[in-house]
Amino acid sequence: DRMKARKVVLFPTPGAGHLVAMVELAKQILHHSGHTLSITILQIHPPSTSPLNSSNTSTHVQAVAASGLDINFVDLPPSDYDPEGEGLMQTLSYIESQKPALSRTLTSISAVTTVSAIVLDMFCIGVAGVPAELGIPTYVLYTSGAAMLATFLYLPTLDMKYDRDFRELKELIHIPGRSPVPASAMPIPLQEKKSPSYQWFIRAAELYSKLDGLLVNTFEGLQPTPIKALTDGLCTPGSRTPPIYPVGPLLGLRPESPEHDCIKWLDRQPHASVVFMCFGSMGAFSPEQIAEIADGLERSGQRFLWSIRIRPSGASQFSEPEDVDPREVLPEGFLERTKEKGLVWPRWAPQVGILSHPAVGGFVSHCGWNSTLESVWFGVPMISWPLYAEQSMNAYELVNDLGLSLGVLMKEEGGGLVKGEELDKAVRSLMEGQEGKKVREKMKEAKNMARKAVEEGGSSYSALASLVQKWTKGH
């Protein structure tokens, strides 16, 4: 056995955001191990109706597979299981249906190499029993931040404390490591105790206590308070918190082509003058909301680059956003009136290339965690406009705890329109006001800390190095 090569197996959730961080982790493990560890990334192919079945993901995989690193992708044979429910629950039950396939695959990999560890994505926790039975040390990569992890691990405690649903509570919820949050900001899947998603998160929190460790896509300097609350065990009273390893920011920063039209347009704009608006791989708006955004941008008089995606009225929130002809959805004359100031981009936009561009001075974002970390990495101050998943929690933290973002006022969680005048006010405040200046300064500090964290000797670099050393030695 001593002669067998060592391997780390990674098991991501399908879906662009989750895969990017996992692939980045793979590259860093190879680097830290001096290439003595090899990596296998297991892939599952969810039903075609799943929100996670995005075309973005497969191109990313191909790019990595072609990059000559010691990372191989292994497809788990598709199960004939037909998952119930929609959206997140459908994906979670599909992942859990993969246990037999996972067991067979890990057994056959173990026959030829020593599997030093398996790292599961946060949503793959339901299969954690499989590697544990095979004696493989089991870790989770948590692809959101430390404050969200604190919230999730504290959920069983909150469950005992409140006998009513979060959506019925009018009070602030106290969670270790973060300032109190309004119950309405709790993620939609947790709003209702009887819902299958709520039940799943309660079970998952218990499974986390058995893990060998938790890797979190964040860094000490960004979230010191929740990281300390986690490390001190405050989030799991009466239970075990596994060792916490903040190893972020894990970002897939592939350079975009300088030939892209968005980049060429930015090249012609003054330094830090452009507000970039983009809402993630699933973010799209109704025609009514698009009209309000147009009104707000025009009123603000600021330069803007707006990546606009639309979801037809009545389509499921999990359906892929569609590319649009902007003339069909924008107020009449808007494009003509703003052509000196703005670019409306009606397709997917090269976010990394845009955020890294010196002409960009602000980012109106849905506050998905990957987008948040990219904004921090490039030091672009934010305006939070959360749409789904845990984004309201992220937005609340960015505005109130970290001071890295201004907020637009949401009327009712998941409901009301954001009015043009609110957007106008937020954009002007960010680009010209005193509040904006404070956020800009804070963001500059965060950017410097992010870069230090991943340099040799930095906090995230060292956390991952200590873990990889364990895996190379094999305990």
UniProtKB/TrEMBL annotation:
Transmembrane helix in keyword set: yes
EC number: 2.4.1.-
Entry's Gene Ontology molecular function annotations: UDP-glucosyltransferase activity
Keyword Transmembrane helix set for record: yes
Keywords associated with the record: Glycosyltransferase, Membrane, Transferase, Transmembrane, Transmembrane helix
Transmembrane segments: 109-130, 136-155
InterPro entries, alphabetized: UDP-glycosyltransf_plant, UDP_glucos_trans, UDP_glycos_trans_CS
Entry similarity comment: Belongs to the UDP-glycosyltransferase family.
Record-given protein name: Glycosyltransferase
